[in-house]
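CORE FACILITY INTAKE
Project code: CF-77B
Contact: R.S. (postdoc)
Sample description: multi-component assembly, two entities in total
Requested service: structural model of the whole complex
Turnaround: standard
Below are the sequence entries exactly as provided by the requester. Do not edit them.
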Amino acid sequence: MTAVPLLNSVQMASFVARGFLRFDGVVPEDINRQFMAEAGEIPQARDGVRLRKVYGEALAANDIPEVAAGTPLAEAYAPGSALARLLALPLVRGAVESLMGDRPVFDHHFLHVTFPPAYHAAGGGENVSQHTHQDSTIDPRTAFDLQIMYYPHAVTREMGGTRFVPGTHLRKVSEVALGRYQNIRGQQHMVCEAGTLLFLHHGIWHGGGVNLSDRTRYMFKIRMHASGPQTRRWDLSDLPPPGPQRAIYYRKSPPEPNTVATVLTTPEPWFEQDTGRLEYVNRIRLWRWLAEDPAFDVDYWMTRLESGTP
Amino acid sequence: MTDAPRPVLRQKVLVLYLANSALDAPTVAWAVYDGTGQTLHMAGDADEPPYPTGLAALKDGWRLFQASQLLPHARGEEFDLAYLKYEFFFEQLVEIAP
């Protein structure tokens, strides 16, 4: 019996297929208020003061600590702080344990602040969205890091919100090399209530939206990596046993929804017609690793490639 | 006799990413860069593409000037995915006030 609610197999399959899990309004309001107090007020826009200066001063003055990379996540935040309380929420503990295993390690965190137009006008800068990118650098691992995005206050569409593209996380790209792609079918914009969390595979393509409202927008991100085994850490009780393959292409009825097999073979709107199939292959390979099931397959994508002689 | 003033031209660029290498394949991603300065486009500014296919852009007067090549897949890297594969650059030359 576990003390925290672990993710189930369909949630894990969704993370493998789409690269994110979203939990709306799960952080209690008192933690959101405490976080906003610890994050501090952003000074008013002042003519001639560049935004970078305003940002730097705000980060220096707030109560969110600087934390060394490599710190055990459990030691990153002072007991009683908003972020320690957030990480102690059963839902968060369960999701982190399911995706990272025991004792994840802190990589970095950042307070993302997206400023209203007045700050850009005062500082002489242009108010535009952030180019779409993948964090860090080219990362050829099968293992993945987890990024938690925390939205401590409600976010409207006008405020921009984080833009992300479900299903892009398995593509091995070099950070903002893909900045040329302004819009991608199926992209999502975070419009949410206060206390919403996004759990992201490190590879997902994303960017900050432009803030056209009159309110400063906050998002806090924490990146972590595993310190030990990362496989078979979720609630395995609903993991389907190995069984016969289902019929493919010629089906009399739609595939059963909300199964691991169906989730792993559901396309995204941006999928190219040929490489969409390779996305399925890569999802199946990640699932094999996570489930420690090297024979796992869906719809014969791997079996077909692995049959016969070389 | 004096020469007529030469028109001042600026380039508008449309980039479409299609679902396969055919120009009449569906658009899956896109970008617009307006050299006239009359419009400003940026990441995340539209959730629906300006044209459903590359062919629709041609019919609306955009001129294709570059298309991505079809390259064989390196042995051992057949399943590796990175950037979008079917990229088409279009342009319009627009006359602006001198």
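Facility notes:
- Chain B is about 5% helix and 35% strand.
- The mean pLDDT of chain B is 95.
Invoice: internal transfer
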